[in-house]
């Protein structure tokens, strides 16, 4: 017992390492759904949050008056003072509870300023900033005269999930609403988002950013997202870019995707990639995140890789400079242009001396793998898909029955590299399964010795 007391004294005095230092993890921002769960356990915190929801509902109907705005901001300050984790929480791109998380994120930022609207609500610490999956996609894209966009589409068709979800969004974007000659743009956008969120990036981004050397390839690339429905207005009329941005910022998902793009595709002359964050991968993912929203961009012709929004700056008045700035983030953005070009020639950017980890499936695919192994955290339970998603899935099945144009091969997890969840690079599981540290073994040795002598 004397030895046990001595060992404990050494731990407390700091001579021996503590378990806190032994099992140290790199902290990451709290998920907003989890932060709200903690808040909801406190009646006072939950009451303050519900008050902000009422304020947000009123603001959606009409601008808040000065007194109402002041009261709402006072409640917001009281909530963030009581539970500061709500002000620092982030969301994960493409996860099942993404929209719920984003709603919480923006509720505690009731009246955001322009700067806050350009801060990404997404947590990039878990994303592969070294572009491992993009390296895998671009490695198959060599400008050898072959139609790379046709090849990318064929590769997508050979992977069951990619082929079926591509068939789903093509059907949703080409099907006319009953009694009209118009498509259902809302369903088209939703199906496009499902494709980009559930298909591994090796396939989805390969289809979006395939390099072209001729107009035939360029036209296939331009039509990848069915622009007649997802991109442009049926009448061919372009709205004002600031009006389009205003509508986007009324929706939590669109506002978040736009903020992510403005944050991760910010150009800079001081980096080799031309991006302020010096990451072509983050910029490409942020650009792809806009597809399926009212701010959907696309290639403007079949003879170049230039992209643009479907809008103009006519009628901007004294906000013309602001409109031009938004428009040029797509048309004259060095970061975005270099990132798209890099997909066709990965050697155009400085080589990363660190060997990239194995390519990862999309977040939805990762969650499916976790579900199959019964390792999904409690707060990430599967949510039931909406009736609209069920309709799209049914339409997809009908299309497959009729056409049968997509071949089926083994699933991606069997065909290519699997997710590196739990690998040494991720920290969590690998650290916990490692052998016990020497300090712990020493402690156990002393305990067993003291018991044998007792």
Defining traits:
454 residues; disordered N terminus
Count of alpha/pi helices:
24
Helix and strand pattern: HHHHHHHHHHHHHHHHHEEHHHHHHH
**Radius of gyration computed on alpha carbons:** 25 Å
**Helical fraction:** 55-70%
Low-pLDDT stretches: 1-27, 348-360, 369-393, 395-436
- Main beta-sheet strand count, sense and barrel state: 2 strands, antiparallel
Describe this entry's structure for a reader:
The chain is an all-alpha fold. The chain has 24 helices and two strands. It has a two-stranded antiparallel sheet with strand order 1-2. The N terminus is likely disordered.
Write the layout of secondary structure elements.
Blueprint: H1 2-13, H2 19-22, H3 32-40, H4 43-61, H5 66-82, H6 85-88, H7 98-107, H8 132-138, H9 148-158, H10 160-174, H11 185-198, H12 201-208, H13 215-222, H14 227-230, H15 241-248, H16 252-264, H17 280-290, E1 297-299, E2 307-309, H18 320-331, H19 334-344, H20 363-372, H21 387-403, H22 412-415, H23 428-433, H24 438-453
Antiparallel strand pairs: 1-2
Helix pairs in contact: 1-24, 4-5, 8-12, 9-12, 10-11, 10-21, 16-17, 17-19
Short summary of the structure?
With 454 residues, the protein is mainly alpha-helical. The protein is 55% helix and 1% strand.
């Amino acid at each position: 017992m004397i030895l046990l007391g001595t060992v404990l004294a050494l731990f407390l005095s700091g001579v021996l390492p503590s378990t806190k230092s032994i099992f140290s993890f790199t902290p990451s921002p709290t998920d907003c759904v989890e932060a709200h769960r903690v808040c909801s356990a406190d009646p006072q915190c939950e009451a303050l949050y519900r008050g902000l929801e009422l304020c947000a509902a009123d603001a959606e109907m009409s601008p808040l008056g000065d007194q109402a705005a002041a009261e709402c901001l006072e409640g917001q300050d009281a909530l963030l003072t009581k539970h500061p984790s709500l002000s620092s929480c982030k969301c994960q791109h493409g996860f099942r509870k993404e929209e719920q998380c984003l709603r919480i994120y923006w509720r505690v930022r009731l009246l955001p300023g322009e700067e806050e609207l350009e801060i990404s609500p997404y947590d990039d610490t878990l994303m592969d900033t070294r572009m491992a999956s993009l390296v895998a996609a671009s490695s198959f894209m060599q400008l050898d005269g072959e139609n790379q966009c046709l090849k990318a589409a064929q590769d997508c068709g050979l992977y069951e999930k990619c082929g079926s979800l591509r068939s789903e969004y093509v059907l949703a974007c080409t099907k006319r609403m009953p009694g009209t000659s118009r498509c259902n743009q809302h369903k088209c956008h939703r199906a496009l988002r499902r494709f980009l969120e559930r298909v591994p990036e090796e396939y989805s981004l390969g289809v979006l950013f395939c390099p072209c050397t001729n107009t035939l390839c360029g036209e296939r690339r331009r039509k990848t997202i069915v622009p007649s429905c997802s991109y442009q207005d049926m009448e061919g009329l372009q709205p004002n870019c600031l009006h389009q941005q205003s509508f986007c910022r009324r929706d939590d998902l669109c506002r978040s995707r736009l903020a992510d793009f403005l944050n991760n595709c910010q150009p800079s002359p001081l980096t080799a990639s031309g991006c302020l964050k010096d990451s072509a991968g983050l910029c490409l993912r942020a650009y792809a995140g806009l597809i399926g929203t009212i701010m959907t961009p696309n290639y403007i012709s079949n003879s170049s890789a230039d992209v643009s929004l479907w809008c103009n700056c006519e009628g901007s008045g004294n906000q013309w400079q602001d409109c031009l700035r938004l428009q040029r983030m797509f048309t004259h953005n060095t970061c975005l242009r270099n990132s798209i070009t890099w997909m066709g020639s990965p050697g155009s950017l400085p080589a990363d001396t660190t060997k990239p980890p194995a390519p990862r499936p999309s977040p939805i695919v990762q969650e499916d793998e976790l579900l199959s192994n019964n390792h999904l955290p409690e707060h990430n339970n599967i949510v039931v898909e909406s009736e609209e998603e069920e309709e799209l899935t049914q339409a997809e099945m009908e299309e497959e029955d009729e056409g049968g144009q997509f071949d089926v091969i083994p699933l991606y997890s069997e065909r290519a590299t699997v997710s590196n969840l739990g690998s040494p690079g991720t920290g969590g599981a690998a650290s916990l399964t490692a052998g016990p540290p020497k300090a712990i073994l020493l402690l156990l040795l002393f305990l067993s010795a003291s018991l044998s002598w007792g």
